[in-house]
Here is the input.
Amino acid sequence: MYPAITLNALERLLNARFKEGFLSLKDLPQPSAFKDMDKATKRIVQAIQLKEKITIIGDYDVDGVTSTTLMKLFFDEIGYPVEWIIPNRFRDGYGLSENIIPRILGTDLAITVDNGISAVYAAKLCKEEGIELIITDHHLLAQQVPEAYAIIDQKQQECSFPYSDVCGAQIAWYLIASVKNALGIKINMMEYMELVSIAVIADMMPLQHINRAMVTAGIKALNKSTRPAIRAFLEHAQKETLNAEDIGFFLAPLLNSAGRMDDAKYAVEFLISTNIYDARVRLGHLIDFNIARKAAEQEITVKALAQVDLDDEVIVVEGEEWHEGVVGIVAARVARHHEKPCIVLSNNGRGLLKGSGRSFGSCDLFGMTESCRKNLEKFGGHQAAIGLSLKTENLEVFKEELQINFVQSNFSKEEIDPDIVGELDFREISFDLTRLIKQYEPYGEGNPTPKFISKNVEILQADTMGKESEHLRFSFAQEGIVMAGVQFKTREVYELGSRVDVIYTVNENHFRGNVTLQLMVEKIVQ
Here is the structure.
């Protein structure tokens, strides 16, 4: 099923991911490559000169939070007061909407970041209220585009920006650079790049082309940062430096938890902290939100797994008033557990189901669900993740149509793990391998960490570890070569001496001055 992989073969495979080679910041396109960038810049400069009221409108995920933070910090740096709003997930809904128009009355110029490209009605209301609107977004355009003074979105057909997969914070960074140039002032754009790197990773942009260059530079800037929020996080994490994994698995969930559990404004307030004492207190709030998020997620995951119909190819589960902020994470967990796409819905008790779906492997959940659109009230997303709402009376028909669409899609489970680069013999595992792997960091979306499969491996040892015995420590053997391994968050029981196939990544374990190689086990096939 998988080809045998050697060091040379792996190097060729990894190198092929970067058709342009490794770009650096000098390769970044100019801001004017974006459609309407120059137009938006002139309007912002005019607003500053005329002392007009400017309001920034963000979004409640990490990309929206960091985009809002970037704009706020820039205007603070140039000494111009602005207001900022991040809509509340539960009260306001997503992005620029009719619900927040009353809160921005009196604004002369509204600037959206990481949202707005679908806000047709809200843009109309802005015009009626005399609010001029600049939309900066990175999402796909619908058939109808909002009426605005300027729209900066690289997915517009008329846009000459050469990269389509960039996030909202990158566009905000470009807008800041453009306004800075127009004002003829000197500011250090690297201090903004550190926040951009967080957003690129959290929003799962492909870590290729300029994204890799911006993340690499941003992480270097983060590790030299004097920003109180970053110092407080490093202190909490007991780390001296951050890497892409630290951002993706620890910092991003903390920033996300505010919007999931309460209000994303707390994440912005943390990032803009002006001293370490405030940053520590605000980080404490985010930690509390994240603890609550994990508890809600765990509780709903147990309930969702209990509902699963194993005969369904697309899992759909629903519960009374399940927390809307975590249903997407639960869907991802259930999808991974059953290796099937999953949709998790929360019933508000008033006849409406609202929730999120996550795909599995290369399955196009968006395409399959879009074919059922007549049963839905709201729907959006992309191949791997969707958001939707529907009336309770349409649920059964929706589920039936989904199963039919799955069969018609001809999705093959043979395709479920494209990240496995090949079959690796234990004799090929060495420090030369890990050195090669490090050369192509940072890993993430579009540049996944190389994953291997080793077959006919004997389990010599499988001991539990962790406070609740939720992890396993292994010793594996293949043809006389013994390797250590770790598998996190598993309750599986393995028979010693059994022969299995192991799917894993390889890393270096640094402990008390010693460096050893170990397998980070993702799955064991018995």
The longest helix spans residues 276-307. Residues 420-525 form a domain with the OB fold (Dihydrolipoamide Acetyltransferase, E2P) fold (CATH 2.40.50.460). The CA atoms of residues 475 and 484 lie 5 Å apart.
